[in-house]
Amino acid sequence: MDNLIDRHKSEKLYVQLFDILKKKIEDGDWPVTSQIPTEEEICRTYEVSKATVRLSVLELVRQGYLTRQQGKGTFVCKRIIPEGLMMSTSFRELMLEAGVNFSTKLLAKTVTMPIDDIDVKLGVPEDRHIIYIRRLRLLDNEPILLQESYIPHHLCPSLLHDDVEDNSLFDLFEKKYGMKITRIVDFIEIAHVTAAEGQVLGLPEGAVAMLLEQHFYAGDTQVMYMRSVKRPERFRFYIEMERK
Amino acid sequence: MSTSKVAKDLMIDVFEFPHIPYWFSIRQAIGIIKKSLLTKEKCLQPMAVLVFDEKYNLVGTVSMKDILRGLEPRFLKPTTKAQGHVADEAGLSVLWDTLFNKESKEMAEKPISDVMTPAKFFVLPDDPITKAAYLMVHNELALLPVLENNKKFVGLVRMIEVFDELSNNILEGRG
Lengths: 244, 175
Fold this sequence. Notes:
The complex is a heterodimer of chains A (about 240) and B (about 180).
Chain A: H1 13-26, H2 39-46, H3 50-62, E1 66-69, E2 73-76, E3 88-89, E4 103-112, H4 118-122, E5 130-139, E6 142-152, H5 169-176, E7 183-192, H6 195-201, E8 208-218, E9 221-230, E10 241-242
Antiparallel strand pairs in A: 1-2, 3-10, 4-5, 5-6, 6-9, 7-8, 8-9
Chain B: H1 7-10, E1 19-21, H2 26-36, E2 48-52, E3 58-63, H3 64-71, H4 93-107, E4 117-118, H5 129-139, E5 143-148, E6 152-158, H6 159-174
Parallel strand pairs in B: 1-2
Antiparallel strand pairs in B: 2-3, 3-4, 5-6
Helix pairs in contact in B: 5-6
């Protein structure tokens, strides 16, 4: 049977469990937005350890199949998973930080611990300090984009004292901290704004907006996770890809 | 004999303690306490989370006691100290038990700023330790921020080190 763990296989247990759980999501056994069983229940069903369940679930979170909400549980995402189209993209143009003449209003620059699934999205342990930057981008004084950035504090502690209204984080990483960005992974989806996001962007709660999640890497280290919520209008994406 | 040590000699790094912004809910803070304080092999004392504003200024600290107090149903909170009516205060806690799932879960959505201990008292790096001890004793604090130029948060002084230092003076003075 393909929905059980095979202990004679050479494949690691958590990889097998990952495939089983992924199939449950893809087949709709675990419907979109539903809460998945607890760690203990999954342990019992598949007769594996808690550590195995945890690894598999975290990987599903990292790949965008599941989302964790602190104190509430783990849920199946509404998202469509991009299937391995890998091309070299001139990502500078994709970056919302550069190019357009935004004005920027700094709403917050502080330090926090990761909540929900921020630790997984940023690839840091759950007790790691994180610099949190929340900025509002305006175009002709109209709020257009709400951008939240999460950066592991230990990578660049003095970022807390840098001007991030007039400087792009990208430039600060490369020029000041010597962290050359070598890879960016983007997830783009249509989402509904929360009450708090709506208030800042001038949209009612639940209104449709564009959600862009970006993971920035310098080599193997993820240096930033950025979540941008954009008003749906006045935007056109430019993506250029080149076959290598 | 007075001690010659000052606050900066005893202070510990702020990053020893978990940080959160004031708008996090009590529920989110509980999650952080569990992950950052209750699972660590080395036990950090006092168990506290530092609360900051949007500009990374310290605005308060949160202990487990602050959180439990915040989760208490409203009617259990003593209104005024009624004279001659102190018998069996804990008896009311039976009611908390029955209400815990309903009202306390609602309370857990409140922002942490509602239940934190505001950071009202602090010492400067060159302040004597006795000043830290005085502030701790008179305001029931186990942790005191150290501010540079009355503004920049540079460290924390704990009761543990203050006690250790002052008590050494007492013991040395005996001979």
